Amino acid sequence: xxxxxxxxxxxxxxxxxxxxxxxxSAQPAQKPAEFKIGVTTFLSGPASVFGVPSxxxxxxxxxxxxxxxxxxxxxxxxxxxxxxxxxxxxxxEFRRLVQSEGVHAMFQSxxxxxxxxxxxxxxxxxKLTILWDCGTxxxxxxxxxxxxxxxxxxxxxxxxxxxxxxxxxKPDFRTIAVINQDYAWGRDSWELWKTGMDxxxxxxxxxxxxxxxxxSTDFSTEITRLLALRPDVILSTSWGGELVTFxxxxxxxxxxxxxxxxxxxxxxxxxxLGRSMPEGHIIGTRxxxxxxxxxxxxxxxxxxxxxxxxxxxxxxxxxxxxxxxxAMWALKAGVEKAVAAxxxxxxxxxxxxxxxxxxxxxxxxxxxxxxxxxQGLEDQIVGLSSFNDRFPFAVPKDMIQFPGEQVSAPVGQxxxxxxxxxxxxxxxxxxxxxG
Amino acid sequence: xxxWFQDNGxxxxxxxxxxxxxxxxxxxxxxxxxxxxxxxxxxxxxxGSLYAIGAYSAASIGIFLSGRGLPDWASIPTLILSAxxxxxxxxxxxxxLLLRRIYAxxxxxxxxxxxxxxxxLEDVQKLLWGVQPIHHxxxxxxxxxxxxxxxxxxxxxxxxxxxxxxxxxxxTLVGLAWFLRRTLTGRVIVAVTTDREAATAMGIDAxxxxxxxxxxxxxxxxxxxxxxxxxxxxxxxxxxxxIVLSFAVVATAGLGQIEGAALTSLMMGLGRSIAVYFEPExxxxxxxxxxxxxxxxRPQGLFGVIETRRV
Lengths: 435, 311
Hints:
A: Rossmann fold, Rossmann fold, five-stranded parallel β-sheet, globular, disordered N terminus, ABC_transp_permease (chain B), Branched-chain amino acid ABC transporter permease (chain B), BCAA_transport_permease (chain B)
């Protein structure tokens, strides 16, 4: 027989439910035996071309950091979750990792959809969350997050920098066609590009807007149409196997001789394309971490990352490797800053998160600063595809470096609103040649 | 209307050329699925995996042999032989060890089992070939391009796309039709497709027919994958993309209908190409619009026959 549940019991239970979490969070945090991180990335499906290298990088960096004493003396342990099953699955896994596994920080995600779904959990569960790769501008432009930070650039600078490069390199172009993947990034990146292009070079005619099905393996028809249209410029923010297929099919049919291609996310596909990539086209890398960076800010760190990754996995690092490394180095810098601020004591989740606001941390190529809104400012380097003796694949020449703060929307402004305010004279002042 | 054709006639011509090669590839994959579905009455979700493994194997064998001095021309027969090898190895293994155990099960169980197999084979692909894109385009490069006149301009097409893909599809269609109608084995397969119970009662060894048909279907799936490998970069997930369209073809064509699969593939290939030129937003949905329209008028499919069911 169960005792009757009185109104007084209900009130007591209600107060308890409200007060208990705040009482617990007021307890001094104990230094953990290990610092657990939950990492969400694509381990299956087409985007695993990014996800698997990022997982390898994470495992390698965890080993390296643990070998040198861990974070503030605490070894790291990483758990991985596959993003491919979708956001419902991912939200459940995020909760499980925080509430059941007791992770101290979450690293999410490659897909912008994943980040949009999971970032609110950082606030709900009050857990430090590092956005290590996704690019949607909506995260920090539509909300303020206390526990979430992005340790690399995002869609706006990653699209604006190649646009500025094009406007400097081929200022007289009159027509453009776009062929992007049919999903959020493909559509959003075209909107950002078009908004910026209309502001800085009004009157360019868009002769074709094509968004082939995500995962397409044949672009023959699209290429035929582009060959017939002969646009001055072809933009494609596609990536992975689709970009490789598009470039190979296009190169075989000499599309590159008729139009200048602008490929903001090309870097990750260059090792696969090898010599199939035509020379003289505009390529980007979602940051400044080219394998042929002419003057990295921290050469020892740069060579250490590139060489150790190549030795361990027998492949060249691509941008998700660098983005994962940035997240790991940011985590180390932020947690150690929080520990130092507490005089060696272990910080609470809130104290840890507060240490990340305004944090600057070194990367192999530069220093990234996390702004007050949580967004990282990462420089962008764009150049023309070229070959040299050092690499069996295309790397950029005639590089222009665009400082992160110059090509990012200011805090509090939406990207599309800010891009509309850009004037043609911005083109000349933006970026500086390097190398 | 006449004015529209005058303005867009040349573009329509280009769309037809693109549509033919697209239809060829769709047909090769879908016809194998249709054959298996018609005879075994199993919705084989793992058909997409056989396509992907065929593609990966052809690329790997091609890369291996090219590295050992295989002449470029030999890359085309290598594609076909790779597909035959994949089908001949995986087909009997899957049919004997797995499918044979679920023929008597409910359709939902069959669907779940082949879906599980699909998931397992997806992981096997990642274990064997990794996740970075793989490609081997010797066949396409060796055959070169041809300049097709386009008004005062010209459009380069690859000979592989323009001649090899539609050519192999046509040879497959004619060969299959001949095999099924003119040979004893083919007639036995048709008999099992038409009425399994009656065929078995007349002494046909259904188990043998199932094994043969599934192996042949696996070879066709692998052939579709192998022939796509010179033009496409191979990445995890290509099997899933293919299987959805193949199901649309099978549903539209009608159960076990080879000519139906050919006509449906042609409609869908041409429909997609024309959409890319004139209404790109519709490209993705065109095959499914065609499927819905056909099934509204003919629920049994274009060439399907209405079956009586005992109650």
